[in-house]
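Fold Annotation — chain and its backbone

Fields — amino acid sequence, structure tokens

___
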Amino acid sequence: MATTDEAILRRELRALGAHPRGRTLLQLALRGVERGERDLTVGCWTRAGEGGCLFQHAWWQGRADGTLPRAACANEGIERFIGSRD
């Protein structure tokens, strides 16, 4: 049985995956995590970029393969990709 935190995370991931660009971000993140170059963490990236949350992994992967637009930081790039309303 899932804990409350796990249930919330599952709900949020389902909602993100239901949005076409959100699904793309999840795919980018999973490809980045799969490469194993950086650790996956909860919350924001840590240790000078050696680990990061799903969005940070999506950002690193999207920058590496040219999927995400150039931006000063991950938050700005993700927002440009998804849109400020979403």
Remarks:
- The radius of gyration is 13 Å.
